[in-house]
Amino acid sequence: MEQPQNIKGMRDHLPPAMLLRQHIINTLVGIFERHGFEPITTPIVEYAETLEGKLGDEEKLIYRFEDHGGRRVALRYDQTVPLARVVAQYSGQLTLPWRRYSVGPSYRGERPARGRYREFWQADADLVGSASPVADAEIIAMLTEALAALGFPGFTTLLNHRQVIGGIARVSGLEEAAAGSVYRAIDKLDKIGPDGVHDELQKTGVTEDAATGILALVQLEGSSADVLHELRQRLQGDERAMAALANLEAIIGHLDSMGVSPEQYQVAPRLARGLSYYTGTVFEAITSHWPAGSLLGGGRYDELIGMFGKQSVPTVGLAFGIDRLHDVMEELGIGPRPQTTAQVYVTVFSDAQMDASLRLAHELRAAGIHTITTLDGGTNLGKQFKEADKRGLRFALVVGPDEVERNEVAIRNMQNGAQRTVPRSAAAAVLREMLGM
Fold this sequence. Notes:
Elements: H1 15-34, E1 38-39, E2 45-47, H2 48-51, E3 64-66, E4 72-75, H3 80-89, E5 98-107, E6 119-128, H4 133-150, E7 155-161, H5 162-171, H6 179-186, H7 189-203, H8 208-218, H9 224-234, H10 239-255, E8 265-267, E9 281-287, E10 296-300, E11 315-321, H11 322-332, E12 344-346, H12 354-366, E13 371-373, H13 381-390, E14 395-398, H14 401-406, E15 408-413, E16 419-423, H15 427-434
Parallel strand pairs: 1-5, 7-8, 12-13, 12-14
Antiparallel strand pairs: 2-4, 3-4, 5-6, 6-11, 7-9, 9-10, 10-11, 14-15, 15-16
Helix pairs in contact: 1-4, 1-11, 4-10, 5-6, 5-10, 6-7, 7-8
């Protein structure tokens, strides 16, 4: 028989990994809901035509197949295109502007790599129905709040606008139709470097001088104010680029009021983001502690919903990659590291004391304390203590004949071996205090 194994790029998550992943998801959901975002979910399987024609070059990564009814279907590539379908399909039931979030798996047929998997979980948050820069600022502020809550050190959110890159292409002498090739080339800057991008641009027909000019502009660095000022000087005469810069300035102007400091973001003309549905602001969060890529990203896509409905609906959103956040947090030692969901272990002294131990476990659970017991009353206490220690539990409780007679409970600290006895009626309250609940 062959060795059991999972599909490459699709991972099993055992309890320690799942506990960290649940911590990430719970933290994100808590922040989404504090901002008034509402949950939805969509099917993992969509009609293939729902996803096709929306993703640009990334479309080749869609998992497509034919179901038993002969229908062409596909696995969800992300949660943005399904959201666009939902808004168009249920437009009469939604009150705009609408804040929504969704958590679940998506699938991409790409080569697995560090932080990239074929099955991956995302937590998306989108603000539908508003073109206001306040909407963009709220999404960026929520991103900042979430990464800070998860404990990420020294992260920066890079900001740009699709029409800034379009303007760079136009002032460099390129036709409008060539802007797409510039997006794709610039999106590879961190992977292949300036020389690689220069070659990539020339392969698409961009002249030597134009490629050099584009690279000089997209590599502008400095404070956000300085970069915006320089771009205004270089892109004068391009109305769409000027409007984009004004939009970025308006967004930045709201960030301070939302608790985001200038040190936490940076205008970066090199930021393109590869997905073709972005139309306005784009952003990514990075940290020097993780050089393998961005932590997450998002942007404004005002035309995607219109591909399903009668009219376009302005929308801005972001997607947290749960797998990537988990991998980075695990590598950097960020976040909690529980080995189990249980907090205490109620031992069973003997078969005669089984019911007393089960009643105590029931009382502790009713008090909100995560509790497990042995399932075999014939196991000696030493083995039960070893099991509690192996599972990473902080406390083990003993209800032996003496404790039952005195109506007491013995609490053993599994970290240092110290033991104390408390009245049975106070056991739950004492444990809650010891657990910091």
